[in-house]
Amino acid sequence: MTPSIPFLDLVSLHRELKDDLLAVLDQAIDTAGYIGGPLVKKFEEEFAQFCTSRYCIAVGSGTDALRLAYIAGGIRPGDEVITVPNTFIATTESISQAGAHIVFVDIDQKTCTMDPAKLRSFLESGCVREKATGKTRNRVTGRPVTGVVPVHLYGHPADMDAIMEIAAEWNLLVFEDACQAHGAGFHSKKCGRWRMAGSMGTAAAFSFYPGKNLGALGEGGAITTDDPGIADACRMLRDHGQERKYYHDTEGYNGRLDAIQCGFLSIKLKKLPEWNDARRRNAAIYSRLLSGHKQVVIPFEAAWARSVYHLYVIRVNNRDALQRRLAEMGIATALHYPVPLHLQKPYAKLGHGIGSFPVAEHYARELLSLPMFPELTGEQIRSVADAVEIAVASGPMDTRE
Fold first, then answer.
1. What span, in angstroms and rounded, lies between the C-alpha atoms of 363 and 356?
2. Is residue 112 left, alpha or beta, with left meaning phi > 0 and alpha meaning psi from -120 to 50?
3. 332-382: per-residue pLDDT in tens?
4. Phi and psi of 228, rounded to 5°?
5. d(CA 187, CA 306)
6. Which residues contact 139 (CB under 8 A, 6 or more apart)?
7. Which domains occur in the chain, in start order?
8. What's the pTM?
9. Which residues does 123 contact at the CB level (< 8 Å), separation at least 6?
10. For residues 218 and 73, is the Cβ–Cβ distance under 8 A?
């Protein structure tokens, strides 16, 4: 059955831009400008300005962005990098691909992003600072701990003031996983102003997967940074380690973002503030309608955050039964992410069993992503909220249904 209310509507979003998007294809065909060139440079300049960063390097995917940012930023084989278990595997597989080891810390109960207190606890109890070098080492493994990756989850930024302060104390590089946070804001007390996701760490990674707030018509990603050395290294790494054609300074990757996608993204970037505002309005309607239900936990937005609601994720007991009931009512939903990474097969070798990160595990059992996109109407949101109320009020939801 086709859902009467889809989880995501990319057809309507692109229909109004169709003529402009097709003009990008005409330009590429007429000029044979497919790889590199003015369309790529234009988008990089525009997105850097949008993120209030000095540099943007367009790459083939969000995973490319993470991997290249780690390598260019200073993560070396054998290092340890700290992140959270409730994220898409790209956050961590790119750590492994950079030759580093993954360390997990648990999340904050309200924001569901990295808990700075858990980060500090791990460093103070599990690590030691070398007086001679200033490096941080894991007491158990003896490996250097060099980086931390806060994930701006579902469009809500992590507590960057606290994380940056801890990172500075322990001499850690900070890589923002901003793949779901295009345009999200963080109010920094330290700086006395609002800052954009992707402008605060050593470097940041964005994904332009089609369903993102800013999505390509295919794969795409970008790295933002204020460091010219990191920017130069990322440019070489994305293009086989060459600064100019056939002269290679290092081994690299084929991680370029093609000119056509950059042209599409330039067009869509102009609409992003409007789309983000629409997502925030939609989230406010959802929260107003659902806040009275004791069995439903609505998303929390910290006072220091301006979420862009890439996803609107509620929490409820017997989530699977609720999802089935909503599907029967013609409402499409999704799960982001139902199994924390430390319990996934690739990371069994880390030895983390059930109970290792209780907040992330509890959250994963209850989460349910409701329909969220800019064109979602108030009537559709009310229909979803009414369906949730009916489903929750209709009696115990046995997970064996």
1. 13
2. left
3. 999 999 999 999 999 999 999 999 999 999 999 999 999 999 999 999 999
4. -65, -30
5. 8
6. 126, 127, 128
7. 10-105+113-269 (3.40.640.10), 272-393 (3.90.1150.10)
8. 0.96
9. 136, 145, 166, 170
10. no
